[in-house]
Amino acid sequence: MYSYNYLFEFTKNVFLKMGCSEEHSEIIADVFLAAELRGHASHGMIRIKDYYELWKAGRINVNPDIKIVHESPSTAVVDGDNGVGMVPARRSMEIAIEKAGTAGTGWVATRNSNHFGIAGYYSMMALKHDMIGICLTNANPLVAPTFSISRMMGTNPIAVAIPALKQPPFVADFATTPIARGKLAVAEKKGEKVAFGFVQDKTGKPSDDPSILRSGGSMLTLGGDRLHGSHKGYCLSAVVDIFSAVFSGANFGPFVPPSVAYLPVLEKKVGEGTGHFFGAMRIDAFQPAGEFKSKMDEWIGTFRSSKPAEGEERVLIPGDPEREAEERIMMEGIKLVPAIRDDLVAIAGELNVDFE
Amino acid sequence: MYSYNYLFEFTKNVFLKMGCSEEHSEIIADVFLAAELRGHASHGMIRIKDYYELWKAGRINVNPDIKIVHESPSTAVVDGDNGVGMVPARRSMEIAIEKAGTAGTGWVATRNSNHFGIAGYYSMMALKHDMIGICLTNANPLVAPTFSISRMMGTNPIAVAIPALKQPPFVADFATTPIARGKLAVAEKKGEKVAFGFVQDKTGKPSDDPSILRSGGSMLTLGGDRLHGSHKGYCLSAVVDIFSAVFSGANFGPFVPPSVAYLPVLEKKVGEGTGHFFGAMRIDAFQPAGEFKSKMDEWIGTFRSSKPAEGEERVLIPGDPEREAEERIMMEGIKLVPAIRDDLVAIAGELNVDFE
After folding, report:
1. Minimal CA–CA distance to A302: which of B242, B345, B89, B210?
2. Local confidence band at A13 (pLDDT 50, 70, 90 cut-offs)
3. B275 interaction partners in chain A (CB closer than 8 Å)
4. Chain A contact set for B105 (CB, 8 A)
5. How many CA within 13 A on the CB side of residue A300?
6. A231 and B281 in contact by Cβ < 8 A?
7. Strand, coil or helix: A68
8. CA distance A149 to A218
9. What's the CATH code of the domain at B157?
10. Does B258 share its domain with B351?
11. Per the domain annotation, does A328 fall within a domain?
């Protein structure tokens, strides 16, 4: 078990050695550790190696000059200068929050960025300003539109954070696919099948094989199949892609660059890097903040007291599982599986950073 | 078969006789007929009776005084004064478009409204202004959160319309449930079962009985069950509810008033009427409009040319089925099933309006 502080310092030191500034290294460590605490280890320490390899391959910029390239009172387009995704993402959300301060809402589309960790992190930045936070991003293509077998979209997540008064905030943060890609990898390692409705083979036939992506298969959108509404998941994923990439001038759909160095740079570009989209909405642009937050307490209380189905203990509010994980993991510490620990030990050796 | 113009005039005359102004009656007829043309008959002529009965019961205001009650440069809250939903909804979207004209984006939350027809109609109002349009609404509670058997949410739709240049626009308009409620009613009338994944019985057991809502059952959120991501559909539906009702001061979740007169007025109120949420985003607040729309052509062309699965002819872009329905129905005319026609003949008789 590792403590939060130990892994934070380690992560910060890795990115410092890669050439990131003190400020940027702390932002990056903060986002990695937030993923670990919130129980999304798939976006935590396991990913450090990906960024390290991208850096070694000269495919990521550790000293980005992040700039607003276009703006209106409530909007901006940000160029992330191919930085480590967390850095342009955090700056973009800050700009959205600044815009909301004066215009009521702020909306920032970001291009020329890279994988930024968990979307929920940026949406939650709005909460302490009495704002609602929104974050979308596109990602490497693995997912097929309804009726198709082509990998056209990423797992394109949506995060929305809404403050309450006495209740903890409402935080939704979810991929627009039935499951995260990481769950396929886990099942594959264990030699297990997965449920139908997650993936299809290269002809479009339903599959329960978690390794099917290696043989031309693809992931399905939320809904699974047309009968169960996969076209709605396709709509959602498409909207995330368009807001993230077409608003910003990033690569869309099948042209989103890989977030790992073992996949080659794509031949065709239709924009710059990966795209994100951020929103901040000042509550008192709609309702006095106290009244709104007290009404959110009532909303949360009402939904939390809805009747559980037979065999279920309780009904959850979006954000409950992650908050409970955070409380538990902060106390118990963060566990790294041996393979990830070995990767980090190797990186620590190469960069001359302490880690054991 | 009826012509578009005949049903438009009839619908307009029905609402004129109920006391709506000429302008409001035309708006209402326009939205009803848009639903018919776009192949969403469940939100078309079949619903006229519901509004007529609500009016007879004194539960809807045909002369609403629609007012902005709060605003910022990019936002407004609108009170719909219990009007026929289309009227406050159209006015609210106009305000969102006006706000976007000056602030880059415009966001309007509307309370004290009623069922407004198809969400796609309002999102599409933005297109001719070179804006992206967004529309959300809450609705009568029929849907249970994940792990619950309580009917806490409506089928809470999301509509997003995005303009292109030579390609037709991208228009997503979908309920956050696997299927629309109307499809359950159709299966029930035919005495057919439905697929599992749409509804559950009163204990939370999966059901294929389309009449299960009559015996304490509930609809499921997009995803169907927890394993297949129903918690993501729950997140979406909850966000629609909070944006529509908590931002505006309307009733949320289980307190949304019925849109039919045969269901009693609810005892508990937590706000005013039904709530909607509208957004307009000026394209050139992000990118020059011509460049953006030409990039959307490229996006649409790329996705339309993705490879169909075995047995499928083509991959669709959101909005394709509705646009094709519109072209066909505009030519062929609108068919009304005998039961709906009989209802309309009866209403026409009572109001002394021509209809045959």
Report:
1. B242
2. very high
3. none
4. 72, 74-75, 105, 107
5. 20
6. no
7. strand
8. 7
9. 3.30.1370.60
10. no
11. no
Taking the Cβ of residue B308 and every Cβ of chain A, the question of whether any pair is shorter than 8 Å is answered with yes
Rounded to the nearest 5°, which phi and psi values hold at A135? -145, 130
Non-local CB neighbours of B343 within 8 Å, separated by 6+ positions? B48, B49
Query: Among partner residues A179, A254, A316, which is closest to B147 by beta-carbon distance?
Result: A316
Residue A291: other Cβ atoms inside 10 A: 15
Q: How confident is the model at residue A186 (pLDDT cuts 50, 70, 90)?
A: confident
B124-144 pLDDT tens trace:
999 999 999 999 999 999 999
- Specify the residue for token string 């040319």: B305
- Which of B130, B230, B306 would best serve as a mutation to test chain A binding (most A beta carbons within 10 A)? B306
Is residue A24, in this structure, part of any structural domain at all?
A: yes
Is residue B133 within 8 A of residue B126, CB to CB? The reply is: yes
Compare CB distances from A270 to B178, B298, B316 and report the shortest one's residue: B298
Q: Do A104 and B162 touch (CB under 8 A)?
A: no
- Residue A64 has phi, psi (to 5 degrees) of -70, 145
DSSP sequence for B68-80:
EEEEETTEEEEE-
Q: How far is A355 from chain B (nearest CA, A)?
A: 37
Please state the domain count of chain B. Answer: 2
Are A14 and A137 part of one and the same domain?
no
- Asked if B183 is an interface residue toward chain A (Cβ–Cβ < 8 A), one would say no
Identify whether residues B19 and B82 lie together within a single domain. Answer: no
Rounded to two decimals, the pTM is: 0.98
| CB-nearest partner of A246 from B148, B238, B296 | B296
Answer yes or no: do B253 and B168 share one domain: yes
What pLDDT, on a 0 to 100 scale, did the predictor assign at position B94?
98
H-helix or E-strand containing A12?
helix A4-17
Residue A208 lies in a domain: yes
Tell whether A150 is within 8 A of chain B (Cβ). yes
> Which chain B positions have a beta carbon within 8 Å of A179's beta carbon?
229
Two structure tokens written together for B273:
């009427």
User: Which residue on chain B is closest to A299 by alpha carbon?
Assistant: B252
> Could you tell me if B52 and B91 lie in one domain?
no
Taking the CA of residue B195 and the nearest CA in chain A, the distance in Å comes to 8
Range of the domain at A305: 64-176+229-318
pLDDT band at A10 (very low <50, low <70, confident <90, very high): very high
Residue A94, judged by CB atoms within 10 A of its CB (0-12, 13-18, 19+), counts as middle
Residue A155 has pLDDT above 90, yes or no: yes
H or E stretch including A278?
strand A274-282
Residues A233 and A246 in one domain: yes
Residue ranges in chain B modelled with pLDDT below 50: none
pLDDT digits (tens, 9 = 90+) for A217-262: 999 999 999 999 999 999 999 999 999 999 999 999 999 999 999 9
Q: What is the pLDDT of residues A261-296, one digit of tens each?
A: 999 999 999 999 999 999 999 999 999 999 999 999
Query: Are A185 and A130 found together in one domain?
Result: no
Judge if A68 and A58 occupy the same domain. no
**Encoding tokens for residue A185?**
């990898």
Which pLDDT does position A183 carry in this prediction? 85
> Is residue A224 situated within a structural domain?
no
Is B328 an 8 Å CB contact of chain A?
no
